[in-house]
Amino acid sequence: MKRISTILLIFIFALAGCGKKTAEIKKAGIPGEVVGIPVEVVVVQEKQLREILKFTGDIEGKDQVQVYPKVTGKLIEYKVHEGEPIEKQDVIALIDRDVTGFKFEPAPVEAPISGIAAKNYLDQGDSVSPQTPIAVVADMDEVKVKIEIVEVDYPQVKLGQTAVLKVDAYPDKEFRGKLSKLSSLISIQTRTATAEITISNPGHLLVPGMFARISLLVGEHKALVVPRDAILRLPGTGVYYCFKVEGNQAKKALIELGIKENNDQEIKEGLKEGDLVILSGQGILQTGAAVEVKSKIEGETK
Question: What angle do CA 159, 204, 183 make, to 5 degrees?
Fold first, then answer.
């Protein structure tokens, strides 16, 4: 029993010695020894950010009109199929006036503008009247999208600003247009102003009825930025923060956000150019925690 006790004491002293030695090695910063939580950091940098407003809307022909017959009767036939080009005053359809006791020549329905037959509403034999739309004719060389500008964004929006459109039919393609109309009135009911974007459409890829997502460029300015991935929020609040590295320690920094472009987030307050902001592992950090920078990202942010 005495021999076993002696062995245990030797083992305990050996462990204590090893622990003291390890602490000394870490303090000395000997290469190859981890001295804190390994982290990836990004350098806070100044960058030109574009100010972009996002909208959605439906594509329409730039000139798009519904066509009505001038007489009451029944549809005999369409003379133009959907998607076919048509010139102004070309005959779209013929109407049988269908008046008992009288014989009339078929009444033509003419196109009010040049374009394409975008939609034929009826079937042969359907009853029509001057209040019944029978077709839509659209000028497809240019298309438009109507959007609603909320009151708070209205001062930023100006005629001629560039818009980028994306549609589901062509997910990898961008279409560029210009803000061509802007109402000078804000609706009391919706607190929005109607605006219109015009897009050149030479190949007729954009078709009326398509759903479009629009990015409207309203300005740009220089700003301090970090990747959005580096930013955290205090639960249940609108307070944002991140961790930066100061002297091999993590320090929480409360920050005020500005605009966002892709994954670049403007920092208006709380950081300065050149600060090292922790990009990974920050979810388990506390102020004062020892950290070791394993990689540093400079230049373009992720």
Answer: 20
**Where a domain ends, among 90, 111, 133?**
133
Asked if 106 and 82 touch (Cβ cutoff 8 Å), the reply is: no
- Looking at the fold, whether 74 and 105 belong to one and the same domain comes out as yes
Q: What Rg value do the Cα atoms of the chain yield, rounded?
A: 34
Residue ending a domain, among 193, 221, 249, is 221
pLDDT 10s digits, 125-162: 999 999 999 999 999 899 999 999 999 999 999 999 99
Q: Are residues 240 and 293 in the same domain?
A: yes
Which residues span the domain enclosing 128? 69-133
Contact 140, 119 (CB under 8 A): no
Q: Is residue 19 part of a domain?
A: no
Contact partners, residue 245, CB within 8 Å, separation at least 6? 39, 41, 251, 276, 277, 278, 291, 293
Nearest to 204 by CA among 287, 77, 116: 116
Residue among 137, 82, 133, 145 nearest 115 (CA): 137
Determine, yes or no, domain membership for 259: yes
Residue carrying the six token digits 């062995």: 7
- Report the SS3 class of residue 156: helix
Sequence-distant (≥ 6) Cβ neighbours of residue 30 within 8 angstroms: none
Task: Tell me the average pLDDT across 96-116.
Answer: 91
Number of domains in the chain: 3
DSSP secondary structure code for residue 33 in this structure: S
- Residue 228 falls inside a structural domain: yes
Mind listing the pLDDT tens digit for each residue in 213-270? 999 999 989 999 999 999 999 888 889 999 999 988 999 999 999 988 888 999 999 9
Rounded-to-integer distance, Cα 216 and Cα 145, Å: 12
Q: Residue 129 sits in a domain of what CATH number?
A: 2.40.50.100
Least confident of 30-34, 54-58, 86-90: 30-34
CATH number for the domain spanning 270: value is 2.40.420.20
Considering the entire predicted model, what is its pTM? Answer: 0.65
